[in-house]
Amino acid sequence: MKILRTIAEVRAAVRAARAEGETVGLVPTMGAFHEGHLSLMRAAREQHDLVVVSLFVNPTQFAANEDLSTYPRDEGRDSALAEGEGVDILFAPTPSEIYPDGFATTIHVAGITEVLDGASRGAHHFDGVATVVTKLFGIVTPDVAYFGQKDAQQVLVVRRVVRDLDLDVRIEACPIVRELDGLAMSSRNVYLDADARVQASALNRSLDAAEAVFASGKSDGESIRAAADRVLADASIDVEYLELRDAETLQPVDAVERDALLLVAARVGAARLIDNHLLRGVAS
Ligand code: PAF
Q1: How far is the CA of 263 from the centre of ligand 1 (A)?
Q2: Which of 56, 57, 58, 155, when mutated, tests ligand 1's pocket best, judged by the most ligand atoms within 8 Å of its CB?
Q3: What atom of ligand 1 comes closest to residue 187's alpha carbon?
Q4: Could you tell me if 61 and 87 are in contact, meaning their C-beta atoms sit under 8 angstroms apart?
C-alpha cells in the first residue's frame, strides 16, 4: 500500500490505473478506523481494481465548539489496518493540500442540510462535508464511493451533490456495523467511559423497540417514536433529536407509508452519537 500526501501523486496513480483499464473505488474517511470503515474498504476491494482510502480530518465540517483538536488520530494504526484490507492507496493529505491559501469555494446543498444534524451542528457541517467530498471526487475520480449508512443524512447530501452537479460517480451506502450490544460503531465511541458506554447501547435498543412496534402493525409516528422515547428515558439519555423522516427527502412523516428513517442523536457522556433504522414502507 502506498501512502500519498499530494493531489498530484494521487492523480498520477489513478491515471496509470485507468490506462490499464482498471476501475477505481474510493472510501472517504477521517481515520480512527473501526469495523465500519473496514467493511467499506472490503466492499471497495471486492468490486474494484484500485482501492483508494482518503484519511483527512476535515476542519471545515467541525464547528468552533466541536472536537476537531481532540478527534482521534493515529495514522500508523490506520495505515496498518488499511493495508490489512488490501487497500492500494491511502491518501493522507495535509490541510493546506486540500485547502490552499485563497481557497474560496463552498458546496452548499439546500433543504436536506437544514434539518437533523444540519440544525444541531449548524449549516457549516454539511457544507464542509459536501465541499471536501466533491474535492475528493475531483481528485480520485472514483467509479464508486463508499459511505456508511450510520451517517444517513450525509449519504443523502452526497447523493444530492452527485445528482445536481452531474458527477460521474456512484454512491454506495453500506450497512451500519454494530458492537455486540448493538451500539453503532463510531470513531467517537472512544470518548465513552465505562458508564457512558453501557448507557450508549440504549440508542440502538430504542430504535429496536420502535421497529418492533412498527412490525406489530402500528405505522403511526406517534406510537413508533413513543416506543423509542421510553427506552431512551429509562436510560436517562439526553436526546438531541428523535425523528421519523422520509428516507429520501428527509421530510417529517406522520406515519410510515413509504420507506422512512427513524433517526436519533444524543449526548452520551463526552460523546455526541447518532444512529438510525430504516422502516420499510408498503408504498416504496
Ligand atoms: O463520514 C466521514 O468520515 C466524513 O464526514 C467524510 C465523508 C470523510 C468527509 O470528511
Answers
A1: 18
A2: 58
A3: 3
A4: no
Domain boundary assignment for the chain: 2-174, 187-279
The pairing of strands 24-29 and 2-4 is unpaired
| Smallest CA separation from ligand 1 atom 5, residue | 129
What is the CATH superfamily name and number for domain 187-279?
A: Pantoate-beta-alanine ligase, C-terminal domain (3.30.1300.10)
Q: pLDDT tens string for the chain (284 positions)?
A: 999 999 999 999 999 999 999 999 999 999 999 999 999 999 999 999 999 999 999 999 999 999 999 999 999 999 999 999 999 999 999 999 999 999 999 999 999 999 999 999 998 999 999 999 999 999 999 999 999 999 999 999 999 999 999 999 999 999 999 999 999 999 999 999 999 999 999 999 999 999 999 999 999 999 999 999 999 999 999 999 999 999 999 999 999 999 999 999 999 999 999 999 999 998 87
CATH architecture of 2-174: 3-Layer(aba) Sandwich (3.40)
174 by DSSP, 3-state: which? strand
Rg (CA), the chain: 19
> Which has the closest alpha carbon to 229: 251, 202, 256, 255?
202
> Which of 26, 29, 56, 149 is the pocket-test mutation for ligand 1 (most atoms within 8 Å of CB)?
29
In short, whether 132's Cβ falls inside 6 Å of ligand 1 is yes
